[in-house]
Amino acid sequence: MGKSKQASPLKFYLAKYFFLLIGFMQWLLALVFFTQYQPNAKSQFATLIFFTIGGLCFVLYVFISTHLRRVALSKKKIVILEQAKKQKVDWEDVKSLRLIPFINIYKLKIKGKKKGIYFFPSKDIDPLINFISQQGNKIKSVKNI
To answer: 131 vs 10, which has greater pLDDT?
Structure first.
């Protein structure tokens, strides 16, 4: 496949499980407030707030974990790494590639698939993306959002 470039696995797993960890910590705080303090308006309100924030973090985790993938890029192929399997995609099958700059993540849409996937770039991915964007017939749209 040639030289492929992918982001650090630490960065990927930290981003994927961050909201799950924060959500569990919020639920733990809600449990502490519920069990350790006398039932009054302040403790019940704090319990409700921590439980709600934990629930929102869990929803964010579910959304992020279903869309975030580890991706290895080369000049010929894209390899989507999912647990034990590897899905290889040619650049001709890419519908669009977009950079979301504030969080430095790419959105990749593949022909024939409804949902896009998100992935973190490696430190030296920009020359590869520039190479691919110059090949106008391979990708319909390479954009910065």
So the answer is: 10
